[in-house]
Write a structure and sequence with these properties.
Shape: globular
Helix content: 25-40%
CATH class of the largest domain: Alpha Beta
Strand order of the largest sheet: 10-9-8-11
Structural class: alpha+beta
CATH topology of the largest domain: paralog of FGE (formylglycine-generating enzyme)
Number of helices: 9
CATH architecture of the largest domain: Alpha-Beta Complex
CATH superfamily of the largest domain: paralog of FGE (formylglycine-generating enzyme)
Radius of gyration: 21 Å
Largest sheet: 4 strands, mixed
Order of helices and strands: HHHHHEEEEHEEEHHEHEEEE
Number of strands: 12
Number of domains: 2
Strand content: 5-15%
Amino acid sequence: MSDAALFTDWYSRNRARTRALFDLVADEAYYTRPIDLRHPIVFYEGHLPAFSFNTLVKRALGGDSIDSTLETLFARGIDPSEEEAGNTRQNQWPSRTTVQQFAAEADRRVRAALARSDLAVPGDPLRHRSEAAYAILEHEAMHQETLLYMWHRLPLDRKRRPADYQPRVDGDVPTQEWIDIPAGCATLGENEDALRFGWDNERPRHRAPVDAFRIERHDVTNADFLEFVNQGGPTPAFWERHHDAWYWRGMFDLIPLPLSWPVYVSQADAAAFAAWRGYRLPTEAEFQRAAYGTSSDDERSYPWGSASPSSEHGVFDFTSWDPHPAGSHPAGRSAWGVDDLVGNGWNWTSTVFAPFPGFRAIPSYPEYSADFFDGEHFVMKGASPATARELIRPTFRNWFRPRYPYVYATFRCVRP
């Protein structure tokens, strides 16, 4: 497949999925703000095409503007601190018709740009190795996960429930066990020429020594965390209490708490649980060794080997609105026998998000990582049910503030 065909196909799939996600939202919710730390829903319908247009058409190719006011309004999202929640800048948002007309024209110009043969220009700041094209494609895929965890906070009567919505609540709580990971090295990051595309925080490659440690085979489940809650621990944002019973806040329904599912919590709550148990969260290097390392010190492309990611290996790529029972995808186990390291929920680490030695900001989106090297964000690894398959690679890093409770993030404990 040519680059033009690859880009066009990927972009079309992205846009179709984004449209399907917005179709789930009731009309009266369009200008609401399900999460104080995020813009209202209207922003994102404009932001995704605006970012693609601004990055590829205007900056990389020098194209003409559509509407400079809207291009600026929809240029970038927000990530305020907890103290700023609810106090972010208010805008006079345009009508949905105006947003959709702008999006349609941006789409038209982006599609035309992706069909060009000059998107890969060695040495060009934004077109070297087709950087701008890959950046807009991955950006939209990442934001689709943002949309879903925002939709999760909407009242149920403000969403259109799909006819086939059927959470998988079968399965017993798995028996937790400790897996020994011997001392060795973990590869963190990769060099530019070894990746089809990678964000700046994924580069360059370096090796980190890792002492021997033990890691839990399974993510911490709702059953595990319930013990902590019953002892006075914090309540996860995905739980609700009704008539003396706990429920999971599903995407389209309240579900009696599925005890076998991984618990979704903030990094601070995950660290508190680990400390309560006398353990800790893994470092990024420990996660990397548990997920991709082998007894021969070779490293795998995926925990399960080299086969392309599929629904057999885990819960990712929008195959489910909610988690599946922990350990229900044994084909995705790592070489050491650790389950669900990719899929069913991002895994929190104890590593502060920071640049690798030799970091250089990516020209197509220079603030993408650098604005968050502030000591206030922690690395997550793996993937969630709403992580696109194109983002599943050993080098990919996600990050959030430690008390941000809305993302599809779980954890497991480690000990010496």
